[in-house]
Specification:
Length: 166
């Protein structure tokens, strides 16, 4: 089972190394990790996707909470958050295939970032499955290079009817 965890940390030197070291020292693999400043430049948010059962998740959260620079750890329950990946993909193209590529990917609503004589760079954002499907669609054209973020996620607003009493 995959879990998405939000970790709010102090934006200090070495915090990322300590967090990732916690995972590696316990033999937990990180599927994806994104980090960025929040509205407060002294605070960063990490979005970590990790595989494991509920007992592994519980251990990860306990260990993260023990780290000095960690402010808050939140497990995002499936369905209660919005998560997206971002990807740039450079695809082979020429004057003949450029239009074919743009027409075939239209359903994914990518942004064209750069067009050259022999390649083009497209940007796509969406759920991991959408990004994976886009990669599969681009493979026959010839993927030269791709750069992909990990998941970024944010908890959905809970209305009064969906709040639990726990």
């Amino acid at each position: 089972m995959r879990h998405t965890i939000s970790v709010v940390v102090e934006n200090k030197f070495g915090v990322l190394a300590r967090v990732s070291g916690l995972f590696s020292s316990r033999g937990y693999n990180i599927d994806s990790l994104t980090v960025g400043e929040t509205m407060d430049p002294a605070v960063s948010r990490m979005t970590i996707v990790v595989r494991g059962d509920d007992s592994i998740l519980e251990q990860v959260i306990k260990q993260l909470n023990k780290l000095i620079d960690v402010i808050e750890v939140t497990d995002f329950p499936e369905g209660n958050y919005v998560g997206r990946d971002l990807m740039f993909v450079r695809v082979k193209c020429d004057s003949r295939t450029r239009t074919e590529i743009l027409e075939s990917v239209n359903i994914f609503r990518p942004k064209t970032i750069d067009i050259g004589h022999k390649s083009m760079i497209l940007q796509i954002t969406g759920a991991e499955e959408k990004v994976d499907a886009f990669i599969n669609l681009m493979k026959p054209f010839g993927i030269i290079e791709l750069a992909r973020t990990g998941k970024v996620a944010m908890m959905r607003e809970l209305n009064d009817n969906s709040r639990s009493n726990t």
